Structure formats: structure tokens, C-alpha cells
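ENCODED BACKBONE
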Amino acid sequence: MTHYIQYQGWGIEVQAYESDAARWRPKAAVVGYERGSLQGRIVVAPPAKTFGTVAEADAYAIEMAKQWIDERTPSPLGLFLPKMTA
């Protein structure tokens, strides 16, 4: 289930998806402005990291995205980012 949140001025679109084994894979798209330009990154869990429910995969995807954001320096200004479309 795709949904969108904001964290420290970055937008996170959660995109967990069902794998071949009826398990859920965490994935998120992260976008934000840094040093005057739009930056983006797709974060995906390792292939062995799957979950039994979409809610669990979404939660893990959010944590991966937040970790990627937290490792960025300097942090961007808190900006409103429009929802991304597929």
C-alpha cells in the first residue's frame, strides 16, 4: 500500500510490494531539496528481508528512509513536497 509522509523536510513515499513468495518487501522513494537542487533516492531492503504483512514492510521501509535522511548533511529546510505519482 502506497502512502506518503514527511520527515525533516523530506518526502517519503512508502512503496512496499508483494514478492513471489507472498511476502512483503520494504521499499520507499525519498525526495527533498538539498543545496538548492532536488535530490531523490529509492531505498529497498535486501532480498532476504521480507515481512508477513504490508504494515510490517511499510514500517521497515519508513525506518530505512529515515535512516538515509538522518545520514544526509546538511539537513534541508522543511519544505512542502507534492505527493509523487507512480
User: Anything to note?
Assistant: Residues 40 and 83 are 13 Å apart (CA to CA). Residues 3-70 form a domain with the Nuclear Transport Factor 2; Chain: A, fold (CATH 3.10.450).
